[in-house]
Model the fold of this input.
Amino acid sequence: MKRRYMPMPAKPIERKPEWLKIKLSAGDDNFKEIKSMMRSKTLHTVCEEAKCPNIHECWANRTATFMILGDVCTRACRFCAVKSGLPTELDLQEPARVAEAAEQMGLRHCVVTSVARDDLTDGGASIFAETIRQIRARLPLCGVEVLIPDFLGREASLQTVLEAKPDILNHNMETVERLSDRVRSKAKYRRSLELLERSKRIAPNIPTKSSIMIGVGEEWAELLQTMDDLRAVGCDIMTIGQYLQPTKTHLAVERYYTPEQFAMLKEEGMKRGFKHVESGPLVRSSYHAHEQVQAASKA
Done:
């Protein structure tokens, strides 16, 4: 396969380009209602904790990504705004409250993720599984997508989640292999690939999905290699978005990709056999997740 190489800027661009401007809609009634509901049920969302740029759009459209297992992560990835430290929270009633909130929102597709809980024997897999079951009990027609950590490579934990039969098993690569150790705390590129491969072996009928963020120093050829690596383990859906520095203490943005470059990456991914590739400056793993599943199902 002949590969196209995209010229990159010689130095970092300091000012955000026009295509990254975000329209705020904090005054929207849906936004206010969802924020109030999350507070009343003491639930966390990755939308807030990770400072997602799409929070206003998604909440105004009554969609959200629930973050279970508390709001303190045992890892300290250099790209992520979620608090890190030693968690003290393990709420066994949390799955029921997530399901109640999903029902109240009338969701058709529910995304559930978590902080990394390396302090727990199963990494929180049992809570993931119970959350899936609780959502199914209340919303039997609702699609359930889980975005899981690597569970330190424990196959038993992955098996626990898959036995609850999520509709999509999502685990993010985040970046290319060369930069993985610098960008991700404790996570390993090959271990992430192994998780996705195991998922296909254990539950071949459950589609797998992964995401990378770009703009942290990767090269074009490395992005294509990551696509090849994901396809080699049978990954069905890929999302690609622009990295945005959440605070000054996090990794700096090394370059901003243009919408045209994102379109080229989508084309490269589809040529490699992904059922769907969502690629754009503001794309995040769960952005338009329901539409991603629909597009993949038609492939």
Summary: The longest strand covers residues 208-214. The chain is about 40% helix and 15% strand. The chain has one domain: 23-297. The first helix runs from residue 29 to 40.
